[in-house]
Specification:
about 100 residues, 2 helices, Alpha-Beta Plaits, 5 strands, alpha+beta
């Protein structure tokens, strides 16, 4: 996970995708993310956020999930956007099982 703080003052567009294993946490995550953006698919949100809002959202994510079972990834859609800027949880794109399918 990238630990550096995002210090920009302008808003940027982000994509948040997550896989939450327990229904209660899944519902809680969905409800809380609606404060930061708009759902565009199941478990995928589009958000227009400043650096402080990203930090606030990421703190909420850390308190909401169980990082031994769940994962959340944050992509910045504005330039540069060639990789995830943050992720938390057990998700590792280099070690996906052959039966895993992830749509973004």
């Amino acid at each position: 996970m990238c630990n550096e703080k995002l210090t920009h003052f302008y808003e940027h567009k982000y994509l948040v995708a997550y896989d939450i294993r327990k229904s209660k946490r899944l519902q809680r995550m969905f409800k809380r993310l609606k404060d930061f953006g708009m759902p565009i698919q199941k478990s995928v949100f589009e958000c227009l956020l400043s650096g402080k809002q990203v930090e606030d959202m990421w703190k909420m994510v850390q308190y909401t999930i169980d990082d031994t079972e769940d994962w959340v990834v944050l992509f910045r859609l504005n330039q540069p956007h060639n990789e995830a800027i943050r992720h938390i949880g057990y998700y590792d794109p280099q070690h996906l099982h052959k039966d895993d399918v992830i749509f973004i």
